Amino acid sequence: MEQYVGLDVSLKDTTISIRQGGRRIWRGKCPSDPKAVAQTIRKHAAQPQKVIFESGPLATWFFHALTEEGLPAICIEARHAQKILSETLNKTDANDADGLAQLAEAGFYKAVRVKSFGAMRIRTLIAARAQLLGMTTQLTNQIRGFMKTFGLIVPKGTGRVFDFHVRELVANDGPLAQIILPLLDVWLELRKRAARLGQHLLATARQSAAMKLLMTIPGIGAITAISYLAAVEHPNNFRNSRVVGSWLGLTTRRYQSGEVDYDSHISRRGDRRLRGLLYEAATALLTRTSAESENRLKAWGLHLRQRLGFKRAAVAVARKLAVIMHTMLKTGERFNPMAGSPA
Fold first, then answer.
1. 92 contacts 116 by C-beta, under 8 angstroms
2. Does residue 281 belong to any structural domain of this protein?
3. Burial class, 48, CB count within 10 angstroms (exposed 0-12 / middle 13-18 / buried 19+)
4. Please, which residues have CB within 8 angstroms of residue 336's CB and are 6 or more apart in sequence?
5. Using an 8 Å Cβ cutoff, are 258 and 134 in contact?
6. pLDDT of residue 281
7. Model confidence over 115-134: pLDDT tens digits?
8. Has residue 340 been placed in a domain?
9. Residue ranges for the chain with pLDDT beneath 50
10. How many domains are contained in the chain?
11. Model confidence over 268-282: pLDDT tens digits?
12. 90 close to 204: Cβ distance less than 8 angstroms
């Protein structure tokens, strides 16, 4: 008979539940190591039909490691699973594992695509760079705030200009300099590290023909292109290009109940960082591109801006960019500024 396995994965231990013929035949725990989990499953289930677990911090590692062990690993959407698992009277790891095994047996779950380690390395690189840039901005604001207390207003400027002004202002105040200059040294080091990660990103982008293809779109730079490719991985992962917009949370949410039927704000599901980059690209396309880069997409966005306002128009253009970029990856064609109507 077919056997179904549910895994409740935590940082230290993994609870395993195995079902067969509509009932649980074994339940237990083992360390959260894919090899140990695989050995435990094989000991109590010779040929499991499905091994499912929720998406989470360890999901990528578990999925690829269990797949290498020859197990039919399936990662399911955590939000979807929690709506069902929360119906149990007592919230325990054991009950969650039982619930996941029942979902596997019933087939009532939503599987998610687990990214490759290569794509995750790129995403980690992007996230690390963004974190360093955020820390740099935060430290800049802290330095400005500390110095305002003593009547020292740092003029506008970034980079070397900011460094010069800060050192100049604290030059005649020894006690304050002992406080501010260590912060400034950390600020400089953060900028250097962020610049190195940025150079690594640019070098990776230059080596990819797909990224060069995406960068033919006005407003799309190396960071946006590499982030998009790392998220999508392969165009065949989506049944059509229009799905990408909703996958990134750039389509409106709908609520309908009886006589009530309205569209709300965008869903904001999916990759938040990539969604923000596409919004920035749309903003650049609508406001900063030169007359030489005029295209129908920009004209369409400017027309929407007159009717709906800038923010809604930028969101619509961001969604359209996501769709166009997927189509370009699928066909291998460069961006055609006068192709078709984007409406």
1. no
2. yes
3. buried
4. none
5. no
6. 94
7. 999 999 999 999 999 999 99
8. no
9. 343
10. 3
11. 888 899 999 999 999
12. no
- Give the residue numbers spanning the domain of 324: 210-331
Residue 291, pLDDT score: 60
Which CA distances in Å does 175 have to 16, 46, 165, 172, 186?
A: 60, 71, 17, 9, 18
Q: The CATH number of the domain where 74 resides is what? A: 3.30.420.10
DSSP letters spanning 71-136:
--EEEE-HHHHHHHHTTSSS--HHHHHHHHHHHHHHT---B-PPPPHHHHHHHHHHHHHHHHHHHH
> Is 337 a domain residue?
no
Give this prediction's pTM.
Answer: 0.82
Single residue among 86, 106, 126 that ends a domain in this structure: 106
CA distance 327 to 236: 10
165 and 215 share one domain: no
Whether 338 maps to a domain, the answer reads: no
Q: Percent of the chain having pLDDT more than 70?
A: 97
- In this structure, the answer to whether residues 214 and 311 fall within a common structural domain is yes
What's the pLDDT at 293? 66
Same domain, 291 and 191: no
CB contact at 8 A, 281 and 321: yes
The last residue of a domain, from among 48, 77, 106: 106
What is the structure's pLDDT at 199?
93
Q: Can you give the pLDDT at residue 81?
A: 87
b/e map 134-172, b = 16+ CB within 10 Å? ebbeebbeebeebbeeeebebeeeeeeebbebbeebbee
Residue whose tokens read 């962020």: 194
Take residue 222 and report the two structure tokens written for it: 């190396």
Q: Do both 53 and 90 map to the same domain?
A: yes
Residue 292's pLDDT is: 60
Q: What's the CA gap between 214 and 102, in Å, rounded? A: 43
Beta bridge partners of 51: 5, 73
**Same domain for 216 and 202:** no
Beta bridge partner(s), residue 261? 256
Q: Provide, rounded to the nearest whole percent, the portion of the chain with pLDDT above 90.
A: 72
Question: What is the 8-class DSSP label of residue 16?
Answer: E
